Amino acid sequence: MAQEDVFKKIVSHCKEYGFVFPSSDIYDGLGAVYDYGQNGVELKNNIKQYWWQSMVLLHENIVGIDAAIFMHPTTWKASGHVDAFNDPLIDNRDSKKRYRADVLIEDQIAKYEEKINKEIAKAAKKFGDSFDEQKFRETNPRVLEHQQKRDALHQRYSDAMNASDLNELKQIILDEGIVCPISGTHNWTDVRQFNLMFKTEVGSTAEGSSTIYLRPETAQGIFVNYLNVQKTGRMKLPFGIAQIGKAFRNEIVARQFIFRMREFEQMEMQYFVKPGTELQWFETWKKTRMAWHQALGFGAENYRFHDHEKLAHYANAASDIEFHMPFGFKEVEGIHSRTNFDLSQHAKYSGKKIEYFDPETNESYTPYVIETSIGVDRMFLSIMCHSYEEEKLENGETRVVLKLPEALAPVKLAVMPLVKKDGLPEKAHEIISNLRFHFNCKYDEKDSIGKRYRRQDAIGTPYCVTVDYDTLKDNTVTLRHRDTMEQKRVNIADLQGIIEDRVSITSLLKKIM
Predict the structure, then answer these.
(1) Is 331 assigned to a binding site?
(2) pTM score of the predicted model
(3) What is the pLDDT of residues 94-109, one digit of tens each?
(4) By the 8 A CB rule, do 325 and 385 touch?
(5) Is 69 annotated as a binding residue?
(6) Are 441 and 414 in contact (CB under 8 A)?
(7) Strand (E) or helix (H) holding 402
């Protein structure tokens, strides 16, 4: 099945099973805005809990805050967002559709990479175990041709982006023959910059109101609170401040479901360090964050680092953690060495002295910062994409199952009476009453047991318990595991011990210690 078709099925599955809905769905939705349903919000909260505990529970020198969405407008002047938070946009005159020029070119680069991968896949299938991929890449004429075109385009694109050369970006699009996906034509406008921040007004009257912005990132809320946290917490370098919160960007080209939205959520940690040590800490946090991702068990081959060639004006190192989505490797987290730019800018614009007094060296200086920033929604999507499976069974049937990491699953245990009579529902509710304090349990009595199993498979419930007539006699139940579909009789008194450790966030945290 084509990866595009798989992705469409995942999007459909998210709506059908209460994970993600189009926002304002009864009014035909609002572009690039989504609501999380009853199962989606549980999965999302579990992701956030896993991240939060990995930061503030496992690190004695990292604390959390929750900064306001509205901030003084000078904040965004100091950070550079007012003047430089732009995307290069281009319109197609025939379709009247607007696109990001950089995305169009990046998609073209990906097409060359896809052609290379197809050649490699064909050769690997043909030659089997004797296939030498490295040698094939170095000698096959078609691969070399595609690689040369890819590298030349990548270099040209990188040079244009670093120089902010909008004319060159358009010329690349024309030279590569990139067409509008809607009209199929090359009838492009010039490339121009578009600021991504949402504006609003605060104040009781139109005359007395002032323009403020919805924050486009959560990092600045941490930077402006640096002094408050450092002094009240008596924090010593190195130390970190973590935050989870909403951010807003007026994305013109929002696409790929919840991958790129106008309202999204970030999990960010800013780690303040002594100048001169930042690049060592940068490497440390790259390893730490990759370990966090790989603890989910999706396979190391589905992750890779992408080091930035074009650095933001505030950074001296930057790398993305990319995950293999159905539409290619895409960024889910960024690790950046932001130098002392942010604190220095806020000191300049606020007139406040933002420094750290180092008792060991008896000197004051502005700390450098290592940032880890992960999109909750992108993380959610990567988990859904990897967990979704259409599994062929021995009897010829197909089951749709979400093989979610057990600790992140919305529902940990479904309890089902075999029939809706003879005291079995009451016994099932009794089991739930005892276990609901430890993990999320659900009661399900509608339809046959087989259909109920399939329904729980589709939302990723790792364990199901069936209460039958023998339960009333010996206090045992049938425990079924989602991934293997294996069933066994266990004592009700043992359920908590069997399940709790496997479905707790602690089970994931232990893997990254």
Answers:
(1) yes
(2) 0.84
(3) 998 888 898 899 889 9
(4) yes
(5) no
(6) yes
(7) strand 398-402
